[in-house]
Design the sequence.
């Protein structure tokens, strides 16, 4: 997001070069973000979470529908600064969803979307958990562990639904310090192992919400 235009600086009456106003440069706030990458290298690595009680279903979204995919992205990530895809065009969303092996699995609670897992196929039998998370009202209800477990299982058996793909040999993901406080613990409990840690400096952007102003910021 760009800053709004600044008003012009009033002219001064200085007659000497040393009194002339100095050029200023806008500064943008940044934050330091730690990124952790984790992996499983065998289906036996997965330690599934218990299935929570209640009307919970996990269903694959089989239609290529950028509108729905963007809704899930903004609804889940709106309060934790998921902004990298907000500038993608409709066709860019469509192209990603149409990739062979790309899958989105959606959790429904009492018929309402609660969260999702998006699988991203890569070469060499590798599958990335591209996105995973819950919409805020559904967090803390023991849904996330089961949804992640289910999504990882679908990553491991992806080739059964896409015969042109080789069997999955590795499932990986990354999380960061902007994610919820329980994200890393959930991944470790499900059997993921840390293989890389790095730190990056990113622009300190406003929390976008599912739409601007949704959270009063």
Sequence:
């Amino acid at each position: 997001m760009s800053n709004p235009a600044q008003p012009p600086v009033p002219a001064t009456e200085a007659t000497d070069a040393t009194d002339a106003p100095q050029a200023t440069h806008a500064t943008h706030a940044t934050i330091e973000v730690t990124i952790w990458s984790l992996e499983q290298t065998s289906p036996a690595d997965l330690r599934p979470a218990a299935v929570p009680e209640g009307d919970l279903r996990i269903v694959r979204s089989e239609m290529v529908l950028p509108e729905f995919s963007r809704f899930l992205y903004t609804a889940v990530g709106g309060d934790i600064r998921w902004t990298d895809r907000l500038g993608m065009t409709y066709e860019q969303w469509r192209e990603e969803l149409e990739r062979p092996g790309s899958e989105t699995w959606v959790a429904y609670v009492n018929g309402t979307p609660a969260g999702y897992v998006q699988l991203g196929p890569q070469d060499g039998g590798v599958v990335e958990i591209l996105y995973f998370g819950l919409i805020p009202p559904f967090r803390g209800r023991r849904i996330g562990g089961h949804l992640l477990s289910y999504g990882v299982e679908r990553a491991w058996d992806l080739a059964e639904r896409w015969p042109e793909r080789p069997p999955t040999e590795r499932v990986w993901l990354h999380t960061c310090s902007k994610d919820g406080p329980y994200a890393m613990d959930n991944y470790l409990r499900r059997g993921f192992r840390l293989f890389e840690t790095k730190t990056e400096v990113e622009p300190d952007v406003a929390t976008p919400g599912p739409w601007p102003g949704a959270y009063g910021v």
Strands lie at 30-40, 56-60, 103-109, 112-122, 126-134, 170-176, 193-203.
